[in-house]
Amino acid sequence: MDLIDFILGLALGGFIGFKIAEHIHVTMFRDILVKLKVKDSDMLTMMQDLQQDLPEDHEDAMPRVEVKVEMVNDQIYVYRLDTMEFLCQGATREAVMICLADRFRKDFKIVLSEEHGAKYLKESPGT
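User: That's the sequence. What structure does it adopt?
Assistant: Structure tokens below.
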């Protein structure tokens, strides 16, 4: 029972501490903006200006990973095309996508051709 109480206290303390720190940071940021006399309309204008400054192909700036996909015994295997390094495996398309996202932990674009197994990662009709 002591271990359960300890774990619950630790989890509750961590959660409360996180919320307090979040509140402090939001309050401090808001105070800084007030002291600098920055209004919500100014922030919105800055955001729109920054969006206009983005190049048309800004989405293509994401890192590209060329892959080769194989299916062996109902398992999908994914390899990096340039080095044939094993990246991940899964039983379904969704499992492979989650595995790739966990492995790279950032935005990336998978580049896959029909000749390198694109059929295994295509969405099934009805999904």
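The chain has two domains: 2-53, 60-120.
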